[in-house]
Amino acid sequence: ENGEVRPARRVGTAPVELEAFAARLGPDDLVTLEATGNAAAIARILGAHARVVLANPKATKAATRLRAKTDRIDARTLAQLQSVGLPAGCLAAR
After folding, report:
1. What are phi and psi of 61, to 5 degrees?
2. How many angstroms separate the CA atoms of 56 and 64, rounded?
């Protein structure tokens, strides 16, 4: 938010949980997700409320040269990369 990474709670992937989260988003909000197995379904739900970008997890890790890979590190890394413009190689096909 305003160029700063802010802590947020985990969002469950059940449709009802995603819908509740999405209802708090607006058209100017940007959500960046790693392109994993269920990312397309999540993007469809969130995309009805906000802009959604899918990031290639391997390219993102390579771009940042991170050794550790956890959800918390991934979320912070994606937020930081998105704040400066996600490198083209990190974008996943949609």
Report:
1. -65, -45
2. 12
Q: How far is CA 78 from the centre of its chain?
A: 6
pTM here is 0.73
Q: Which contacts (CB < 8 Å, 24+ apart) does range 66-73 have?
A: 71/10
| Nearest-angstrom CA–CA distance, 58 and 16 | 29
Provide the residue-wise pLDDT of the chain in tens; the chain has 94 residues: 666 666 677 889 899 999 999 999 989 888 888 888 899 999 999 999 998 888 887 777 776 676 666 777 777 777 777 777 765 566 665 4
- Pairwise CA distance, residues 65 & 1, whole Å: 24
How far, in Å, are 18, 37, 42, 53, 90 from residue 13 at the CA level?
6, 12, 7, 17, 23
